[in-house]
């Protein structure tokens, strides 16, 4: 663990988190109840500008709808968001009405600004988030129709995307014909997350078996042997790299469940966490670099809020992490959050390089804050 010169008491950390959490409830969530909501299509806009105006819509993605479904599902029952269940219900219906492919099954990637199908390919990333969101939504409402969609999405992933080696194709055509995409790390990570979300709300032997097989295959095909790092493409692929944020995200998923905690993949990500911290986190500012080569040289120094959130969340499961948690929570608040929302990206010098606020980002903040709530117990 890196040295952190300043330490903080538990009460100081608690006060800081309370301020960050208040910002989430008072500033970020209302953005997607008001200016970020397209009432005509009953969907969130893809992004807002710095003045809270929707960017001119070019498309609406099923994945973005699913992430917002998770967001408002997570807020059901909270006194400050009495409309959360109504919004989650609307998002669930829109997911089905706008994106479900009645002819071939599964869900389209996107629709256009008028609501007509746009990119009709089927991608694993989208389907993983549909599983993830429906599992969380069903946990709150326990409606049979929600579990029915969850089951349908799990079946599609198993029957259409799965390969014999425990991995899954990243993308298929609308009619499920091959696009020769092969497996990619990021959709597979979110599929593992979706499987874990399902297992958190019900016993499911098939999902548990699929999760174990997926993690075994990731260990074989994606883990660099020297540092334990999870690569973005399978080993041996041309132009490969790793992202520190994904090491932290994977570590949290593996550390958070007894199903995976003693697996070979967990052991690899323990090593990867340490290496990613050494080469991918600025010891002064606490900011996380975007993309690195396996030797630790920086390929893309862009600092993204999602990676900050994932490092912070992962620290909640690391021993003796209170001082680091304080540094990272302070870095998130001071560098990325502001009175009008958040900064999506900073450049290598810490200058804001992207001012729009995507509808997909609150998912990362919500899961991060959930990890902190559990940390404080």
From TrEMBL:
Q: Which residues cross the membrane?
A: none
Q: Which residues form a coiled coil?
A: none
Report the EC code(s) recorded for this entry: 5.1.3.11
- Record GO biological process: carbohydrate metabolic process
The superkingdom listed in its UniProt entry is Bacteria
A Pfam family annotated for this chain is GlcNAc_2-epim
Q: What class of enzyme is it?
A: isomerase
Does the record bear Isomerase in its keywords? yes
Q: Which UniProt keywords apply?
A: Isomerase
GO function terms (MF aspect): cellobiose epimerase activity
Could you say which protein family the record assigns here?
A: Belongs to the N-acylglucosamine 2-epimerase family.
What is the protein's given name?
Cellobiose 2-epimerase
* Species name: Pseudomonas fluorescens
